[in-house]
Amino acid sequence: QAYVSYSNIAALTHLAAKPGWEITSTLDDVIWTHEEGDVLSFKVEMKVKIPSNLAFSLLSDFKVRQQWDKHFLTCEVLQAVNEDENIYHITSPPMTGHKPRDFVILVSLRQPCKPSEPYIVAVKSVTLASMPPSPEYCRSEILCAGFQIYSVSHSSSVVCYFNQVTSGVMPYLAANLTGSSKSIEDTALECIKFLE
């Protein structure tokens, strides 16, 4: 179990440190993408006017995520692994012509050891015998996602959201990255509004 948690944090840290991120749009928030084979990753950088420890406590509580992320319909804690780890069952609203999707995810939290390090909220899909795929949902997988939160000052921080995307999440992003939809920007703006 400790290894799974470590690998969750390590995977997000590794993704964030990869060379070759390219900027795709610069509005109030900045979206970057990174392509490797058939895996597409994106990063959204958001500046918020609250301290990093407060941003961390708000973003690490997935039960309030529906308040700002419309991709989250329901969120239920399946297992509290320890104080820094929870396994959740998430459902997403259906897209036209598709069944609603669901996810079983492990969320691992890490606080910085020194001021230059970020707070980390790492997310990845896991399998849980007590929650097998259900016919009413399309079970989807999150390879690696989460937040890195850096302190800028006592009252401001930078929140970076990462998501490594498989074909399951593609329909939600395809329109976005071609510029015909603004759901990533909209979600980022909702996130900032929620945090501030």
From TrEMBL:
SMART domains: START
One GO cellular component term: cytoplasm
START domain: residues covered: 18-165
Pfam families linked: START
Record SUPFAM superfamilies: Bet v1-like (SSF55961)
Protein known as: ACO12 thioesterase
Molecular-function GO term, any one: lipid binding
